[in-house]
Amino acid sequence: MTKLLIVRHGEAEGNREHRFIGQSDVSLTEDGRAQVAALTRRLLGVGITHVVSSDLRRSTETVNPLAEALGIPVKADSRLREIANGEWANLVAADVAARWPDLWARYRDGEDVDRPGGENWTEVQIRAVAAIEDIIAASEDDDVVLVGTHAGPAIGILRWAIGLEPEGNVFNGPFGALHNASISSIAVPGPRLYTVNDTGHLEGEDLLFA
Description:
CATH class: Alpha Beta
Radius of gyration: 16 Å
Order of helices and strands: EHEHEHHHEHEEH
Largest sheet: 6 strands, mixed
Strand order of the largest sheet: 3-2-4-1-5-6
Number of domains: 1
Number of strands: 6
Helix content: 25-40%
């Protein structure tokens, strides 16, 4: 059995304001770095054998401390990037609603809309799952792979794990939003979903593979 630990990056610049950061290459905040320190302590002893990450800075800054502590190289995969926001990049919801009221209404109603000049959630799930399938194909039994990514791709991967097709606004689906520096865990073959949005390392609990 191969275990996949799907980790959303720590708090990044713009997260607190709920900006559409997407593929803007921002860094972690001070709170984000504290979250990463807790995440690193949590995962040091779980037997991680490989680390794969989105190539965006906030994701690599999340996985690098653990990878360095374990002496494991980080493999970058751009398919694990957050959604390309196009003209929505770095805006807040009020800005989007004012400039694209009809599109925003459809998005809020759960439709998987194309962002002007960017992607939709279906495209994100397809590329993120392709990256996961390649990771699985290259893995051996008993591997534990840390996958550093973002909220949108992570939710797409979780949807794949329970057999949901890529459709609709991912945040209107069964998983909602994922916390910064959260861990979701999947085992293959299966796939079998173990945990979702586990923040025990931030709350003093220990739920991973319980």
